[in-house]
């Protein structure tokens, strides 16, 4: 029979996680509820295996079958339901990312998937419906390791080895986090999470608390609660959350577990707490996908009161169905496993249908409306061919450097270049203005190498270009002092080389993703996209910078006719998301910009 106080701890942990995910200001350290779960799991699994080991009744197959029956039915129920919903809700591009995460979830490798996850046009983390399943993957990986460790290593050696392993792993995490700056990857790392499990394992191994007197157990019980609640309320994401701060909640959890002789354990034996602890697994499974779906639809992190009610309703509905129909219907022995197999087969069938439903439920938009260029034919993040756009037979050779807002101008410069008699090489990278000195450390890991490579190529192309054009997300870049400094240095270098630079204004930004808007409306869900307020601030700062250099010119295209009826122009969708033009938009933008480029002749180039 599972201890009621442990179920009470699980209730506290899951509510810490849920409250944090609703609003991270309400419980800044609520994410450490996952760490509490890991410590409890280490204690319980070790206790179970040790009892069977010492009675010579442990069987690997039986252990793993029990874990499967405990985890898999509710897990597949969730994946099936969420896959059906996502097949309707997500755009084609977002659904492709979902399918990758679905496969990682099915193979219990989600932690590795998310440790390297990243791509400029991927949904944000708060919109990834299966993100939370990284912790279930870590748990399952621990189940594979722990029996081997406990069965094949003697108890006496383990009691000495576990503290050494905990300390060694903490050193590893510290090195990865502080020296290699891989703190983000460590959040999902199995090796980084092992100390949390092993703390629970060690407490079970040494039977910590068995010899404590009641008075001492009372002190340890309250100290443990203070450490747990202190972690949930005061540790935040800006602090190091894996080691040592992440372990504070684990230590507190084990102090509470070890102090079973205390007189105040009834505080955790409240029937409601125990019941919530019983359904904590299903609550954890369902809360995040519901939140992610709401945020994907609204495009906002904050929840209104009505949306908070929607969240509570669907989370409770999913969790209760999961608990009473799947967690409580496991059965025993071979019969129980057969029911799990039949249930799993049914859910796999649903998953298979959901994978193909995305393109059927809502007609897919033409590809020209879902991208700003064919990634296999434009020099964005990599060099493809010679990178030329415009009139390639012209004797005038220009160069465009920039981020994805430069990458969206390939079709633009085909139009403008052919009308204004010049060729231009477009060399861009996501999140990165491809000029020397751009701060690579400010980028996520996935963006650093493409940025560095394109900067190198841009330097080589600069030597033969008459004029350098720059295009970027100025609203974002202009706020960073190091970028503005590197831009100033770049202008001075170009002046010394006798080259002129044209800074292109950033187009308007929408307040929501336009592809999502179209899909939601087709589904009968009201949605609209309007121009974001105060997006012009970055343009103003960039324009001011240009006035400081005689060789730099600011080209303001923000009043183009294409922006008068956004996100449509001539009844066609011209934005591929909230901030990027699509191929159609890039073309029309170029058509409208031709007169402005004619005005540059004789001023910027002869």
Polypeptide structure, described:
With 606 residues, the protein is mostly helical. The chain has two domains: 358 residues, no CATH class; 229 residues, SGNH hydrolase (Rossmann fold). Helices cover 60% and strands 5% of the residues. It contains 23 helices and eight strands. The strands form two sheets. Strands 1-3-2-4-5-6 form a six-stranded mixed sheet. Strands 7-8 form a two-stranded antiparallel ribbon. Helix 1 packs antiparallel against helix 2, helix 1 crosses helix 12 and helix 2 runs parallel beside helix 6. The longest helix is centred in the N-terminal third of the chain and has 30 residues. It starts with a helix and ends in a 6-residue tail after the last helix. The mean pLDDT is 91.
Please outline what is shown here.
The chain has 606 residues and is mostly helical. The chain has helices at 4-22, 33-54, 60-89, 92-106, 110-115, 134-152, 155-179, 183-188, 190-206, 214-234, 245-258, 271-278, 280-298, 305-327, 333-361, 404-407, 410-420, 445-462, 474-477, 481-496, 514-522, 537-546, 583-600; strands at 388-390, 397-402, 423-428, 467-471, 500-504, 552-555, 568-569, 572-573.
């Amino acid at each position: 029979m599972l201890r009621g106080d442990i179920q009470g701890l699980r209730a506290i942990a899951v509510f810490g996680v849920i409250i944090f995910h609703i609003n991270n200001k309400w419980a800044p350290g609520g994410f450490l509820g996952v760490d509490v779960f890991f410590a409890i799991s280490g204690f319980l699994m070790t206790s179970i295996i040790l009892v069977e080991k010492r009675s010579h009744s442990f069987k690997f197959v039986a252990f793993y079958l029990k874990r499967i029956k405990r985890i898999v039915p509710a897990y597949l129920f969730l994946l099936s339901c969420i896959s059906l919903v996502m097949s309707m809700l997500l755009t084609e591009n977002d659904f492709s990312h979902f399918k990758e995460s679905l496969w990682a979830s099915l193979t219990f490798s989600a932690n590795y998937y998310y440790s390297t996850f990243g791509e400029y046009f991927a949904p944000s983390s708060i919109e990834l419906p299966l993100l939370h399943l990284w912790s279930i993957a870590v748990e399952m990986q621990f189940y594979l390791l722990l029996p081997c460790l406990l069965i094949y290593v003697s108890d006496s050696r383990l009691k000495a080895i576990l503290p050494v392993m905990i300390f060694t792993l903490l050193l590893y995490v510290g090195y990865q986090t502080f020296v290699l700056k891989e703190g983000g990857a460590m959040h999902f790392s199995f090796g980084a999470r092992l100390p949390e499990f092993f703390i629970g394992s060690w407490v079970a191994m040494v039977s910590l608390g068995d010899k404590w007197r009641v008075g001492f157990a009372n002190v340890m019980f309250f100290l443990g609660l203070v450490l747990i609640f202190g972690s949930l309320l005061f540790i935040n994401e800006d602090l190091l959350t894996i080691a040592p701060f992440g372990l504070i909640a684990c230590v507190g959890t084990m102090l509470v577990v070890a102090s079973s002789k205390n007189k105040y354990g009834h505080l955790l034996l409240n029937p409601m707490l125990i019941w919530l602890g019983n359904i904590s697994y299903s609550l954890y499974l369902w809360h995040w996908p519901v939140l992610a779906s709401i945020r994907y639809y609204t495009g906002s992190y904050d929840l209104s009161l009505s949306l908070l009610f929607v969240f509570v309703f669907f989370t409770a509905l999913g969790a209760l169905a999961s608990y009473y129909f799947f967690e409580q219907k496991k059965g025993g022995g071979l019969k129980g496993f057969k029911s799990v197999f039949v249930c799993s087969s049914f859910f796999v069938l649903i998953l298979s249908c959901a994978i193909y439903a995305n393109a059927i439920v809502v007609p897919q938009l033409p590809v020209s409306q879902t991208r700003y260029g064919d990634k296999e034919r434009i020099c964005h993040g990599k060099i493809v061919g010679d990178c030329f756009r415009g009139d390639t037979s012209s004797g005038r050779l220009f160069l465009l450097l920039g981020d994805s807002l430069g990458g969206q101008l390939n079709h633009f410069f085909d139009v403008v270049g052919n009308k204004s008699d010049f060729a231009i090489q477009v060399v861009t990278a996501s999140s990165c203005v491809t000029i020397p000195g751009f701060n690579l450390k400010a980028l996520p890991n996935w963006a650093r190498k493409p940025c560095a490579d394109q900067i190198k190529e841009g330097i080589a192309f600069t030597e033969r270009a008459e004029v350098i054009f720059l295009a970027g997300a100025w609203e974002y870049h202009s706020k960073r002092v190091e970028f503005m400094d590197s831009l100033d240095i770049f202008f001075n270098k170009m002046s010394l080389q006798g080259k002129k630079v044209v800074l292109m204004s950033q187009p308007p930004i929408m307040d929501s993703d336009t592809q999502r808007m179209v899909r939601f409306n087709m589904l009968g869900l009201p949605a609209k996209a309007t121009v974001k307020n105060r997006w012009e601030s970055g343009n103003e700062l960039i324009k001011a910078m240009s006035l400081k250099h005689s060789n730099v010119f600011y080209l303001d295209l923000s009043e183009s006719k294409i922006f008068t009826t956004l996100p449509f122009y001539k009844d066609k969708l011209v934005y591929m998301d909230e901030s990027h033009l699509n191929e159609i938009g890039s073309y029309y933008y170029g058509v409208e910009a031709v007169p402005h480029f004619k005005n540059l002749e004789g001023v910027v180039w002869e």
